[in-house]
Structures are given as C-alpha cells and as structure tokens.
From TrEMBL:
Name of the protein described by the UniProt record: Glycoside hydrolase family 28
Keywords noted in UniProt: Glycosidase, Hydrolase, Signal
Family to which this protein belongs: Belongs to the glycosyl hydrolase 28 family.
Superkingdom of this protein's organism: Eukaryota
Record has Signal as a keyword: yes
Signal sequence bounds: 1-27
Active site: 273
Transmembrane segments: none
Single GO MF descriptor: polygalacturonase activity
GO-annotated biological processes: carbohydrate metabolic process
Species annotation: Ramulus artemis
Length: 411
C-alpha cells in the first residue's frame, strides 16, 4: 500500500517535471515569422549628398500603402523623418542615409536638443513610426547617425555631449535613431544602423515587430547607445542580427506595459553591455527565448538587471545555444542594480533556463536574488564554464549544475 502510493507519487512528479520542461521552452513570438520581402517602390530617389529632408518626407507622405520609397543610389542627409502607416523606406545597397548634424532640426521646442542640461527628452527621433500598421525600413543600405561628427556650429559631437553629461551628472539631449511607438507589424530588414547619437532602435508599446538580418555598429566607447530596446511590446522577433555598441546590445523593458512573446535567434554580439532584460520591468517580462547567440569581447553576456524602485516579475525565459568568449560577466542576474534604490517593486526572476551554454574564457557568474522569500529560480542544462571563473549565488534556487570545460573549439 505504502509502496504503491509512493510509486504513484513518483510517477506524477515525473510527469509534472516533463510537463514543466516542455512548457519552459514555449515562450516565444506567437506569430509565424518568415523572411520579409521588400515591397515595390512608389517612387525612386537619388541622393545628392545634400540635405534632402523635404524630398524624402514628401515622397513618404504621398506614397501608396503597401509600397516603399526607394533610395536608389548616393548619399542623403536629412533631419527627422516620419514613416506613415503601411509605407516602407527602402535604402538600397551602397546608399547611406545620414542624420543631419544640425541639432536644431531635431529640437522638440525647448531649445535644448544638442545640449547637456538638467532637462532631458529635448530631441525628436531621426526616423519615427508612430501609430502605424505595416510600416518598415528595408534594404542593404546604411542609416548613419553621425554620432562622432561635430555638430553644426559647435565644437562637440553627440558622443562628446554624452560624455560631458556623465561627468556633470546631467542629461545629453541626443536623438534616438529609429523610434517605433504604439504600432503593429513593423519590419526592419537587412539594413545597417550605425553611429547612433543615442539609442539605435526603440520599439515601444508595439504588437508585432520583426528585425531580420539587421546590423548595428557603434563604437564601444559611446554612452547610452543601446542596440534594440523592446519596451512594453509583444510578438517580437529579432533574427540573424549583428550588434556591437557601447551599451546594451538588446535591452527588454516593461515600464508601462508587459513585454512578452519575444524570440531572439541566430544573432552575433560584439562589444556591448549584453543581451539584457531591464532595468525598468515593473509590468513584467515573460516568454522570451534567446537561441543560437554568439557573444564576444563584451562587458556582460546574459543579463537581467533591476532594483526595488522599478522591479517586477521576469519569467519563462530560455537561453539556449549560447557561446561566449572574452565576456567579463557571462551571466549576471542582479536585483540591486542601483544599491540606493527605494520602493516596493521587488525584482523577481523565476523560470529562467540556461541550456547548452558554453563560455570559453573565465568570467564572473552572478545569481543575486532579492531575498530568500523571493529567490532567483533558475535551471541549468549543459552549462560549461571556463576554469578560473567566479560563481556567486545568493538568494538563489538553482536546479542543475555547471561543469568546467577546457576552452573548447571557439565561437
Ligand atoms: C509561463 O508559462 C506557463 C506555461 O506555458 C504559463 O502557464 C504562464 O502563464 C506563463 N507565465 C507568464 C507570466 O507568462
Ligand atoms: C501575438 O500573435 C498571436 C499570433 O499571431 C496573436 O494571436 C496575438 O493576438 C498577438 N498578440 C498581440 C498582443 O498582438
Ligand atoms: C576583450 O574584450 C575587451 C572589451 O571588453 C577588449 O578591450 C579586449 O581587447 C578583448 N581581449 C581580447 C584578447 O580580444
């Protein structure tokens, strides 16, 4: 009697275990995403190298839904542009679209864009897609933010302003390169986005976003130049990307709404602050899969960061098939990103799975939960770390263990 009931218990426990492992791998973009196609052109433009804001904007505003404005050849310089609903911007191979270095063109009306100030949010973005459905940027050309170029009539570049702001503990008023807000089904396909004055791509309150074959490249010495930041957004796919920058390669946030159903697949990260979740996650981040990622020469690898002023629940996250070399903090789960933060938005990270992770060089691994009442709950399957690494786990329930490897084949 006693035996049969404990056998039954074992059976049920095994079933539940199999069930939960299967479910852990289910958090991803719910859409069936395939490689985008570039829509036909409504108008073709050749760049003269001069300021063409009005020409490009006029073409975008008069284009037919479902079509693209095709930048065919040359270099274009422009101030802020708005892509209307259903319209694409096609930047063809060899074409460069430069953000103007004239800060006045980006000013939001407070006359502080291009300055270091105690006020922030003084600039409009370079390319905006707001309240759109089915808009996008396509083609193998380049969007160049010119972050390191001296601003018109000034002795400093956008990046110089960012460093000055750090020293003065104030804000640089620099534009975001591509800002997508309150939209549906937006696509970035093949384009290179480089030298951002501030963030490269923000995806706010958006349902359905695909970045496919996108390259982001900005020097590691720059500040606040995150690669792609989904915030309060759902059904996100970032596939076949290459991201090198001075801040988070990707940062998933959830300040005003939850972020969930996100897939990051087949990407390669150079220098940067990592594949990050945080810092603002009040509304929760869940159902994220990061699969087939290579990270090298960066500060952080897989990072979740928040604190009690802006924490929330992060769950159903799977990292699988990640190879790292020369990464200072290959895994860092931090609930006290700001040690001086106050508040009761306690960060809670559970259902975090690390599967087939290979770290070739020594680094620091941190699992720092908030308290024994709200510990980090993580699972490790086939996690291989380099000899000489540091492993710190506090307020953490970790299932499975890592093994020390000998350096492996490289990645
Ligand atoms: C996490 O995944 C499980 C199983 O798929 C699901 O029941 C649960 O609602 C998810 N939690 C969140 C917060 O998405
Ligand atoms: C996500 O995609 C699924 C499948 O297409 C869809 O049913 C769901 O409504 C989408 N969610 C949002 C928030 O758009
Ligand atoms: C390791 O990465 C750092 C940047 O984090 C870089 O400065 C350094 O040159 C890299 N080392 C090697 C051996 O590549």
């Amino acid at each position: 009697m006693r035996d049969s009931s404990s056998l039954k218990m074992l059976g049920i426990t095994t079933m539940m275990l199999v069930f939960s492992v299967l479910h852990e791998t289910s958090g991803r973009d719910l859409r069936q995403v395939t490689e985008p196609k570039i829509p036909a052109a409504c108008e073709s433009l050749k760049g003269s190298g001069g300021d063409e804001t009005a020409v490009i904007q006029k073409a975008l505003s008069s284009c037919t839904k479902g079509k693209t404005v095709h930048l065919v050849s040359g270099t274009f310089v422009s101030g802020p542009l708005t892509i209307p609903s259903g319209i694409g911007l096609w930047i063809d191979s060899g074409v460069t679209l430069k953000a103007s270095s004239n800060a006045k063109l980006f000013d939001k009306g407070k006359n502080i864009c291009g300055t270091v100030s105690t006020q922030y949010n003084g600039c409009n973005p370079f390319i905006s897609m707001k309240n759109v459905d089915g808009s996008g940027i396509y083609g193998k050309g380049t969007i160049d933010g010119q972050g390191g170029v001296k601003l018109t009539g000034k002795s400093q570049s956008w990046w110089d302003l960012a460093h000055e702001a750090q020293v003065k503990n104030q804000y640089q008023n620099n534009p975001t390169l591509v800002d997508i807000e309150s939209s549906r089904e937006v696509i970035l396909y093949q384009v290179s986005i480089v030298n951002a004055p501030n963030y490269h791509v923000i995806v706010g309150s958006t349902n359905g976003f695909t970045a496919w074959g996108v390259t982001i490249n900005t020097p590691p010495s720059t500040r606040n130049t995150d690669g792609i930041d989904p915030a309060g957004s759902q059904n996100i796919t970032i596939h076949d990307c290459s991201i090198t920058t001075g801040d988070d390669n990707i940062a998933i946030k959830a300040h005003f709404a939850p972020s969930r159903h996100i897939s990051v697949t087949n990407c390669r990260f150079g220098p940067g602050h990592g594949m990050s979740i945080g810092s603002d996650i009040d509304e929760g981040v869940s159902d994220l899969t990061v699969e087939n990622l290579v990270q090298h020469d960066s500060l952080n690898g897989l990072q979740i960061k928040s604190d009690r002023s802006r924490g929330g629940l992060v769950t159903n996250v799977t990292y699988s098939g990640v190879c790292m070399r020369n990464v200072t903090n290959p895994i860092v789960l931090n609930t006290e990103y700001s040690k001086t933060a106050t508040g009761d938005h306690i960060p809670e990270y559970k259902g975090i799975t690390f599967s087939n992770i290979e770290v070739l060089t020594p680094g620091k691994f941190t699992f720092d939960g908030f308290s024994d009442a709200k510990p980090i709950q993580a699972t490790l399957h086939n996690v291989v770390i380099a000899k000489g690494s540091t492993w710190v786990a506090k307020h953490a329930k970790i299932t499975g263990n890592y093994v020390e490897g000998s350096g492996g084949k490289g990645c």
